[in-house]
Design goal:
CATH superfamily of the largest domain: RNA polymerase sigma factor, region 2, helix turn helix motif
CATH topology of the largest domain: Rna Polymerase Sigma Factor, Chain: A
Radius of gyration: 17 Å
Number of strands: 0
Distance between the termini: 43 Å
Number of domains: 2
Strand content: under 5%
CATH class of the largest domain: Mainly Alpha
Order of helices and strands: HHHHHHHH
Largest sheet: none
Length: 182
């Protein structure tokens, strides 16, 4: 969908939601649920935790819908809430839990599926070794496909900071993954 059409659609749904239209809020959930969930999963490494954070993200967003400023994209505003919820959740549950091993089986055969699953587990484990700032930029850039400008807006940091965090995060991930392979 065209960015301007998306922004107009979101703006209309938010306005209706601010007026108490539950169907409009439901539509926003339908549109962004998967995106918020995937971000939370990559930030936390657990499907149960990601589901909790996704729910708390929408609850927080809808409770604070009056504070949304239409000059910002709803997606960026919601994502900022989601990243903050994931970071807060992680801080509250510090101590680390096991990775969720229920990755979906996709592929032509069991050997390829096993290798793919192992690779995903290695990537997720390496991702969990990053600090919160680095993990956030990796998830937003590579899993949510946000632009540098969008990441800057979501995290409330300059684009230069986004780029430097991304550089450091990639370097750290590469080291962690090469360490596991070697």
């Amino acid at each position: 969908m065209d960015k301007e059409l998306e922004r107009a659609r979101d703006g209309q749904l938010v306005l209706k939601g601010q007026r108490g239209d539950q169907a409009a809020l439901g539509e926003l959930v339908d549109i962004y649920h998967g995106t918020v969930y995937r971000m939370a999963f990559r930030m936390l490494g657990s499907s149960e935790d990601a589901a909790d954070v996704t729910q708390s993200t929408f609850l927080s967003a809808f409770e604070n819908l009056h504070a949304y400023r239409p000059e910002h994209k709803f997606f960026s505003w919601l994502y900022r809430i989601g990243v903050n919820e994931a970071l807060d959740y992680r801080r509250r549950r510090q101590g680390g839990e096991c990775l969720d091993e229920s990755l979906p089986d996709q592929g032509p055969g069991p050997e390829l599926v096993a290798r793919h699953g192992q690779l995903q587990e290695q990537i997720q484990a390496a991702l969990m070794q990053l600090n919160d700032e680095q993990r956030a930029v990796i998830v937003l850039r590579h899993y949510s496909e946000c632009s540098y400008g969008e990441i800057s807006e979501i995290l409330c940091v300059p684009e230069k900071t986004v780029k430097s965090r991304l550089f450091e995060a990639r370097r750290t991930l590469k080291g962690a993954l090469q360490g596991e392979a070697g």
